[in-house]
Amino acid sequence: MILLLVSVLGVVGLVRAAQQSQAVFAAAVDLPVGTEVSTADLRVEEVRLGEAGQAYVAAGTAIAPGTRVIAAVKEGELLPTRSLGADDGTGRRPMTIQLDGTVPAGVSAGSKVDVYATVQRSSASNEAPVSRIVLSGVEVTQVQVPEQSVGTAGESLIHVLVDPRDVAALVSARGSGDLLDVVALPAGATG
User: Fold this and answer.
1) Which of 1, 16, 18, 175 has its CA 20 to 30 A from that of 87?
2) If you average pLDDT over residues 64-75, what whole number do you get?
3) Do 41 and 97 sit in the same domain of this protein?
4) For the residues 85-107, what does the mean pLDDT come to?
């Protein structure tokens, strides 16, 4: 009988713990990479996350000046702690690279990549495509892969932080219509 009572009390305790909600921040507006975050950009949501709640910014947490979004958060999404970072003082600019196809293996948030541009030639041209390196060792902050459905192909987006002196090179490559590709650098590589 005592064993049964202890068992019931244990289950009741677990259920109560699972039902406890906690207040966490959610994005009140879209927060793209590079945005300086303030509490005006956030709203409070009461949610039941259990231990997973540690991965999100608790409501009432002071947002330090200079805190920026390093992985985009859409309006209404809970604010993951991993999506925030301090301004590193380098002045790097958040930029987006659009890929026609799949994201190469090894490319994920936090990885470093080299960016290549390939000149698009007409189908009548006999010249081989020419590729050139546009950026070397840029940090990836987010990878967005389109939802796949039968008969559709989407474009993947890779968000990177670019040194101010390299911004023009990437803008030029994007504007020229060149095909952009990224190549993951080995872990620990500096570019």
Assistant:
1) 175
2) 82
3) no
4) 81
Predicted pLDDT at 137: 93
CB atoms within 10 A of CB 140: 21
- pLDDT of 150 > 60? The answer is no
When pLDDT is averaged across residues 120-124 and rounded to a whole number, the result is 67
**Tokens representing 75?**
């309006």
With beta carbons less than 8 A apart as the criterion, state whether 100 and 164 touch: no
CA distance 70 to 34: 6
Q: Return the structure tokens found at 105.
A: 């293996």
Cα separation, 71 vs 13, in Å, equals 36
For residue 76, what are the contacts with CB-CB under 8 A and spacing of at least 6? 26, 27
Say if CB 92 and CB 63 are below 8 A apart: no
pTM for the whole structure: 0.57
| Torsion sign over Cα 189, 97, 26, 40 | positive
What whole-number distance in Å separates Cα of residue 24 and Cα of residue 177?
Answer: 43
Q: Closest Cα to residue 86, out of 63, 109, 58?
A: 63
Note whether 97 and 180 are same-domain residues. yes
Structural domain boundaries enclosing 64? 22-86
Measured in whole angstroms, how far is the alpha carbon of residue 182 from the centre of its chain?
16
